[in-house]
Design a protein that fits this description.
The chain is of the alpha+beta class and 264 residues long. The protein has a single domain, classed as 3-Layer(aba) Sandwich (Peroxisomal Thiolase, Chain A, domain 1). It has 10 helices and 8 strands. The protein has helices at 20-27, 48-53, 56-72, 90-100, 109-115, 119-128, 143-158, 175-178, 218-226, 233-241; strands spanning 2-13, 81-84, 134-137, 162-168, 185-192, 201-208, 245-249, 256-263. An 8-stranded mixed beta sheet has the order 3-2-4-5-1-6-8-7. The radius of gyration is 18 Å and the shape is globular. It starts with a strand and ends with a strand.
Length: 264
């Protein structure tokens, strides 16, 4: 099984990686990587009420998704989307657990809907006016790989552009000890079925039993290992270098993704 598409836009936000423009220089080795806490921008496209209620994972996916779509010169309203995350919004889950452990167990409806794993897709639709199909999946540590396969399958089968939005946010303690995701991190990719004027690279993905690639920079490798959405960093490194190559991404315990990249 192989799936082939073209990457037309990239969004990136994570510790020390403010966007794709800044991250590309770091991932290409042109600038040193300096880990810093992720700063989540305000989701200005949301109406005021929804903006106040938006959670970290909503802010993260809006930031990366819009960056990727703007780079591709597209309108988000007509673009199918695939959302992938290893779990729900950590802060909302933490607050709900605190309330359930207290004497007052009345949970805010807003807090509840912010905790579910498809909340980012709902806010995305509100912010962008998107009415196209939206797929939402969660596969624990394999979520980036699962999301990439789902998005590529849609591109190939439906012959349409699709945006992948892979993201994860931190869990406060004590949940953080059980699920130690240290910070927010997100990657967005606009994938197209045919080569267009804004194509950055051709991507062909197949399954493999080979070991996943690791990053030479120790701090970046620690980031890749620590946050499921960051499993896509070797792919972004290859794009940043602008070289034809094959990278192997983490997926399942005995199955990884072989990704062949050819710059456009």
């Amino acid at each position: 099984m192989t799936l082939t598409a073209y990457i037309e836009g990239i969004g990136l936000l994570g510790p020390g990686l403010a966007d794709w423009s800044a991250g590309r220089a770091v991932l290409a080795g042109q600038q040193a990587y300096r880990p810093e806490r992720t700063i989540l921008p305000q989701p200005v496209l949301l109406p005021a009420a929804e903006r106040r209620r938006s959670s970290a994972i909503v802010k993260l996916t809006l930031a990366t998704g819009l960056e990727a779509i703007n780079a591709a010169g597209l309108d988000a309203a007509g673009l199918p989307s695939v959302f992938a995350a290893s779990g729900g919004d950590g802060e909302s889950c933490h607050i709900i657990c605190e309330m359930l452990a207290s004497d007052d167990r009345l949970i805010s409806p807003t807090r509840f809907h912010n905790s579910v794993h498809n909340v980012a897709a709902g806010y995305w639709s509100i912010a962008t006016g998107a009415m196209s199909s939206s797929s939402v999946l969660s596969a624990f540590d394999a979520s980036f790989g699962a999301g990439l396969l789902e998005a590529l399958a849609q591109v190939v089968v439906d012959d349409t552009r699709t945006v992948l939005l892979a993201s994860d946010t931190a869990y406060p303690e004590p949940l953080g000890s059980a699920r130690p995701i240290p910070d927010a991190f997100g990657i967005a990719l606009v994938l197209a079925p045919a080569r267009g004027a804004r194509a950055l690279a051709q991507i062909t993905v197949s399954l493999t039993g080979a070991r996943a690639d690791q990053l030479d920079d120790v701090a970046l490798e620690n980031l890749r290992r620590a946050i499921p959405a960051a499993r896509g960093l070797p792919l972004l490194c290859a794009i940043a270098l602008g070289q034809a190559q094959c990278v192997v991404l983490d997926y399942l315990e005995a199955t990884r993704l072989a990704v062949v990249l050819a710059p456009c």
